Amino acid sequence: LKEKTEDLKRERWLAEDLLHQMLPKTVAKQLRKCQKVEAENYDQVTIFFSDIVGFTSIAASCTPLQVVEMLNNLYVCFDSRIESYDVYKVETIGDAYMVASGLPERNGTKHADEIAKMSLDLVAAVRQVVIPHTPTGRLQLRAGIHTGPCVAGVVGYKMPRYCLFGDTVNTASCMESTSLPQKIHISSATYHALLTDDAYEIELRGEIEVKGKGKMKTYWLLGNKNYSIQN
């Protein structure tokens, strides 16, 4: 009976651990209790988007198994790295990777700093991931960051997902899509949020045309003055 109880505890722990990787702990706890999870408004969060440069052409020259293996290696690498920061991985869609800070647990004004440090780490880390059919080739990341308000909540019943909504999400996605290989493209809002500590090397990119937003003044995040990212 004691052994069966221990096995049951172990299985329950594994199930809970898996659930916590798919949903925020606070949300998972409410769902386990069959409670309704209310959508929540966040005044300030920082959102990161990235994708792989030339992924479509890379995937076209790989076998399906190689594509899955490559993305799995990439995400295992990224997932292990982001554990060092106060961030929440929202989702992955194909080669796109979305991370936020400041939710579901609020962290005051730390969210921009946490995402900035993490993004520098990931841009360095992606160079370790090989392209299966080109062992000497390395993947390149294109990243974008924006800071602002958003709404977050659980969507769906069969396979519930913790989703983010609002213009901040769209703008962060635009920062990524207008970025360049191995570059971190940040909005003015993120730039001003990072000025507080004067810990970052940031370069003005200038005004660019952003779809649905018009002209926006944006910047490149180059590095952190206090430390270098070690691979």
Which labels suit this protein?
Alpha-Beta Plaits; 231 residues; 2 domains; eight-stranded mixed sheet; 34% strand
Give a verbal description of the structure.
This protein is an alpha+beta fold and 231 residues long. The protein has 2 domains: 1-35, no CATH class; 38-224, Alpha-Beta Plaits, CATH 3.30.70.1230. The chain has 7 helices and 10 strands. It has helices at 2-22, 25-32, 55-60, 64-82, 111-125, 167-177, 188-195, and strands spanning 40-52, 88-93, 96-101, 130-131, 134-138, 141-155, 161-165, 183-187, 200-210, 214-224. The strands form 2 sheets. Strands 1, 2, 3, 6, 7, 8, 9 and 10 form an 8-stranded mixed sheet that branches. Strands 4-5 form a two-stranded antiparallel ribbon. Strand 2 (88-93) and strand 3 (96-101) form a beta hairpin. Helix 4 (64-82) packs across helix 5 (111-125).
